[in-house]
Amino acid sequence: MxxxxxxxxxIELDEGEPIPPLDGYDALMVMxxxxxxxxxxxxxxxxPEKAAIREAVSDRDMPYFGFCLGHQLLADALGGRCERMAExxxxxxxxxLTEEGRTDALMQGLPQNFKVLxxxxxxxxxxxxxxxxxxxxxxxxxQAQRVGRHAWGLQYHVEMTDQTVxxxxxxxxxxxxxxAVLGEGALERFDATCRENMPSFNDASRVLFRNFxxxxxxx
Length: 219
Known about the structure:
By secondary structure, this protein is an alpha/beta fold. The protein has helices spanning about 45-60, 70-75, 100-105, 165-170, 170-180, 185-215, and strands spanning about 30, 65, 80-95, 115-125, 130-135, 140-145, 150-155.
């Protein structure tokens, strides 16, 4: 966003920051986290977050981009369904574009099959009305979705840096999922594999961001 001279305001809901009025904003991005879409009782800020997503996408037709939890919240807030997986999907794993994904504006320039970083235990299992599946994996059918004209969600992660795996592994929920799926002590292997793939991850992230700007008519 800095390279494209885009102004943005980060809002950390888990730190108690309120969601500002959406007037004056052109797009909404919702990031991930170790919490689940079901945790409204323990984390009441999820309720106004879902309301803001509905306002942005349904009422304002505002371009939206969600990542991991943000992907799940898009589905949940608009009437889709999210469910806990039998086993978490963690690792550098393969996903494939669907027929719809191959023609979707967001996914242009990406290969048919590619590797991504996965780290989640909940999946979108039913799209909201007007939704389309853009990518899938063997254990998670809805890896990417579009809802309406220009609201997108990605279950996998595209926002990584060289420090991401170690930073997330310090979060107890993430650490438990990592050890449960990849075995105790998997952090070093996982971190090394992620670093090896970082150039291709970053290239794909830039493609996605440029596509988002163009599809949302910001370019």
